[in-house]
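Quick illustration, no need to memorize.
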Amino acid sequence: MGIEIANILRNATLCLLFAFGSHVALTPQGSAKTYGFKPILRKGTVAHLFWEGCGYIALSHALCVYISSQEGSSFETSVGLGLALRLFWITKSILLKSFTKAGVDITKIEVVTGIGYISTYSLLWGKGSPTLAAGIMSCLLGLCALFLFTSPSYAEQFILGARISKQESPFTMAILRYFGKINLMNASFMAALTFGVEPMKAFGLCEIVWSVADMYDFILGHNIALGNARSTNLITSVMAAATAYGTLS
């Protein structure tokens, strides 16, 4: 019974992630209206670019979780394909000059992307040390995500090198924080798989990360800048905590 409940909770979360990720990745502006953002999400801005990124990272995380749940799958395949989808968004944005149009300095992004390609190649083709590659990417993405989530204003300056107007700032900071939060959840899942945690337990651990992060946002009222009710974070935090309990118990 416990395993059945855990599977139901994981599958329900996967459905939500695929639905959310697809909507946001394909129609950033339309999804912003759907989720009740009061400021207008303008194309060519940092907010628009990284809100679209949230959709792709949600899809990357969902893909990683789904593949890891399949019998006979390896952590190399699940993490490698998850990274590949993430790299698709970054590469697409670089080629279309989306980062440049938004005023983002891509120097550091290109370095991380290069490491990502090497790691993905190692994971999917078994070259070098896949475990080391996955560990490096998990740590690198986790640190960047933590920086974006806890200090988006500093991350905007030191990682992205973007210049954001004071009028745009609160809304953009909230988007960057959300981007950091969803990356933090994904990085924690990849790290858990890399260090040998079974997929269901790894999923439960990343739900704890999301729950704690959402509760942090609720306490500090970060969601208000998006035009959403403060209670939104409380609801999603409780849902994630319940999912974590159901999958870990």
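The radius of gyration is 17 Å.
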